[in-house]
Write a structure and sequence with these properties.
With about 325 residues, the chain is mainly α. About 55% of the residues lie in helices and about 5% in strands. Helix 1 links the parallel strand 1 and strand 2. Helix 3 packs across helix 13 and helix 4 crosses helix 7. It starts with a strand and ends with a helix. About 35% of the residues are buried. The chain binds adenosine-5'-tetraphosphate. Adenosine-5'-tetraphosphate binds next to helix 1.
Length: about 325
């Protein structure tokens, strides 16, 4: 049976970009393959953080994922730092990864430009990601578009390690991406990818009122100044969110109303807010039930960690044997 693995950083609130780009696929795919989902807290400490807040965010992320539809009786959900083999394998992969390949990663280039001091952790981030995936010898990785380059590096690392230490077998499979139709959701500023660290998000668990307060001023078609100006739906971030949340007939109607100046941007946003409610209300109500019962969240994570520790030990045993560390 194919194995799916994917991860998410507890670096802030679970947002609709994470949901539409990755988590929605996790929920759909969990019934088709053995699925392992990881809250990657070691990745999240690359940026400055408060330890007390990390504890809260880890729990909130688990709660959000369960509310989004991850079913712990079908999938495995766990926290990365509960399985020490992730960092052990990452160290090993450090030794087969040329520095130049890490320096070429777009995310490293973008983020390091925004930082005064760049840590080795930021550079090595994709190696830990390769270790996360390959530790479970996963075949498929449902991710958003921003992770494609990192995933390509995971394949290179698997290929290189196999060639060096397991020449006659593909000990590590080369993991393939699985994308959703909404592979890249832009932030409400319309400028950059919706991302926890950019503060341009709509949280998956936010209230109707909080969502409206963010949608109302959100950037639309920059050329449309007045309500009577016809808009261009394809360049409008709100139209793209309609495609993600509204039924096809509404999307079509929105395009006509926008391009003929039938609706102003606020009219269009009100319809989007309704479509979002339809999708988000059940998620919010599952989250409310889980908040009443935090032990349920923790026990899903504990069971997930137990299972993953056993799988990880088995992979590392094979790695150590092939690299001359046994006996
Ligand atoms: N805007 C997005 N559109 C589509 N998919 C997205 N993903 C993230 N943002 C978008 C996908 O969500 C999964 C988890 O990724 P993450 O934890 O790195 O999410 P983030 O919000 O991007 O987190 P950060 O902390 O703000 O990280 P940076 O600063 O690196 O963006 C992944 O599958 C990702 O593709």
């Amino acid at each position: 049976m194919a194995r799916i693995f994917s991860g998410i950083q507890p670096s802030g609130e679970l947002h609709i970009g994470n949901y539409l780009g990755a988590v929605k696929n996790w929920v759909a795919l969990q019934h088709t393959a053995e699925s392992i989902f990881c809250i990657v807290d070691y990745h999240a400490i690359i940026a400055a953080y408060e330890p007390a807040q990390l504890r809260i965010r880890r729990h909130e992320m688990a709660l959000g994922l369960l509310a989004a539809g991850i079913d712990p009786t079908v999938s495995t959900l766990f926290v990365q730092s509960d399985v020490p083999e992730h960092t052990e394998l990452a160290w090993i992969f450090n030794t087969v990864t040329p520095l130049g390949e890490l320096e070429r990663q777009t995310q490293f280039k973008d983020k390091s430009q925004r930082m005064e001091s760049v840590s080795a952790g930021l550079l090595n981030y994709p190696i830990l990601q390769a270790a996360d995936i390959l530790l479970y010898r996963a075949d498929r990785v449902p991710v958003g578009e921003d992770q494609l380059q990192h995933l390509e590096l995971s394949r290179v690392i698997a290929r290189r390690w196999n060639a060096e230490f397991a020449a006659d077998e593909a000990y590590f499979p080369e993991p393939q991406p699985v994308l959703t139709p909404t592979r890249r959701i832009m932030g409400l500023d319309g400028q950059s990818k919706m991302s926890k660290s950019m503060g341009n998000t709509i949280g998956l668990l936010e209230t109707r009122e909080a969502i409206w307060a963010k949608l109302r001023p959100a950037v639309t078609d920059p050329k449309r100044i007045k309500k009577t100006d016809p808009g261009t739906p394809e360049v409008c971030n709100i139209y793209h969110l309609h495609k993600a949340f509204s039924p096809p007939e509404t999307v079509e109607h929105v395009a006509v109303q926008c391009s003929t100046a039938g609706w102003g941007c606020i009219d269009c946003k009100k319809v989007l807010a309704e479509s979002m409610e339809t999708e988000l209300v059940p998620i919010r109500s599952r989250a409310a039930a889980l908040r009443e019962d935090p032990a349920r969240v923790q026990s899903a994570l504990d069971a997930g960690a137990d299972k993953c520790r056993a799988l990880a030990r088995e992979t590392i045993r094979g790695v150590r044997e092939r690299m001359g560390f046994d006996g």
